[in-house]
């Protein structure tokens, strides 16, 4: 017999941070500022990497794609979060909720793959410098980027499809600031065991495997750094890799704590705090850690700014001369 979707809920109500009513204005200012800095920082990375020929290398190609992804990733979540703070709750249709869930999973999975690929790229550059140009050729770089995006696109379909086929009979209040998997499944009036187990297995396959691959790459990198004879060289490389690893650990750690735990439910307030780290904080940290602490990128940024300011100055003089 063909199963039917018995949902009567046509829209959900995102509650956001309603338990912190006296902090709504301050939270709005903080999250709006972080969102502005995140989008601006990642746009700057894309522009600088695109305009400076010296940065047309695999490392910066991956970084440009990561920045592009972060803009859309944070834009999938934060504008709706800001809306919940302004209106003390935000209505969202069932289909819009499923669409947000899909893009969240798709972009989050793609970020996992890109971070693993970027760690592998650094492993090759530091541990096999003589073979780097061959092992990470432009063609291989393009293929790795394409695989990351296409795998992410496919990863988002299964959880979204399974959640969309659950029955939602009411209530319709999601105690969260976006349509996340755990609070949505808690609202379902049908059995979520199969959906929960599939998401659990998928989370292990994506999060844990990518995290292990990233971690293994950094273990080999650290091992190679320890053989650098220069103490200053070791400290400089350790500083950069340590920062990268810290951001990666925050991202993977919070994501794993949320999704690799079947039948275990943290309190809604803890869920929200943990979610802030991987939806708001890490998209801000990535441009800072991966580029603004990088000497080559900072030199390229100054060069692009001087060139653009020079062009703007010439145009201003031409306009004054014409007048």
Count of runs of 4 or more consecutive helical residues = 10
Low-confidence stretches: none
| Helix proportion | over 70%
N-to-C series of helices and strands: EHHEHHHEHHHHH
Q: Mean of residue pLDDT?
A: 85
The major beta sheet can be summarized as: 3 strands, mixed
* Rg, alpha carbons: 22 Å
Shape: globular
Instruction: Assign the structural class, choosing from mainly alpha, mainly beta, alpha/beta, alpha+beta, or little secondary structure.
Output: mainly alpha
Task: Report how far the terminal alpha carbons are from each other.
Answer: 80 Å
What's the total number of strands? 3
What proportion strand? under 5%
Cross-sheet strand order for the largest sheet: 2-1-3
List strands and helices in order, with pairings:
Layout: E1 11-14, H1 24-51, H2 58-87, E2 90-93, H3 94-127, H4 132-135, H5 138-164, E3 173-174, H6 181-187, H7 193-225, H8 231-259, H9 268-292, H10 295-322
Helix pairs in contact: 1-2, 1-9, 1-10, 2-3, 2-9, 3-5, 3-7, 5-7, 7-8, 8-9
């Amino acid at each position: 017999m063909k199963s039917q979707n018995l949902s009567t809920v046509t829209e959900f109500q995102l509650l956001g941070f309603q338990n912190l009513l006296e902090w709504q204005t301050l939270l709005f200012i903080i999250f709006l500022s972080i969102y502005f800095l995140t989008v601006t920082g990642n746009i700057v990375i894309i522009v600088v990497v695109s305009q400076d020929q010296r940065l047309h290398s695999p490392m910066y190609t991956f970084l440009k794609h990561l920045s592009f992804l972060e803009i859309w990733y944070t834009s999938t979540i934060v504008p709706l979060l800001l809306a919940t703070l302004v209106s003390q709750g935000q209505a969202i249709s069932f289909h819009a909720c499923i669409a947000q869930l899909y893009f969240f999973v798709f972009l989050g999975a793609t970020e996992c793959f890109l971070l693993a690929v970027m760690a592998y790229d650094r492993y090759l550059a530091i541990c096999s410098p003589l073979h780097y140009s061959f092992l990470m050729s432009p063609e291989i770089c393009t293929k790795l980027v394409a695989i990351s995006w296409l795998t992410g696109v496919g990863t988002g379909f299964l959880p979204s499809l399974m959640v969309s086929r659950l029955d939602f009979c009411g209530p319709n209040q999601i105690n969260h600031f976006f349509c996340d998997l755990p609070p949505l499944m808690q609202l379902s009036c049908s059995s979520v065991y199969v959906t929960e187990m599939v998401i659990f297995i998928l989370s292990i396959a994506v999060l844990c495997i990518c995290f292990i691959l990233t971690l293994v790459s950094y273990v080999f990198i650290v091992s190679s750094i320890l053989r650098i004879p220069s103490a200053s060289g070791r400290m400089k490389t350790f500083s950069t890799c340590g920062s990268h690893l810290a951001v990666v650990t925050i991202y993977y750690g919070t994501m794993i704590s949320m999704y690799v735990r079947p039948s275990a439910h943290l309190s809604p307030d803890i869920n929200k705090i943990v979610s802030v780290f991987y939806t708001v904080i890490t998209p801000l940290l990535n441009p800072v850690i991966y580029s603004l602490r990088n000497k080559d990128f900072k030199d390229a940024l100054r060069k692009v700014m001087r060139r653009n300011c020079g062009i703007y100055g010439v145009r201003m003089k031409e306009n004054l001369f014409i007048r």
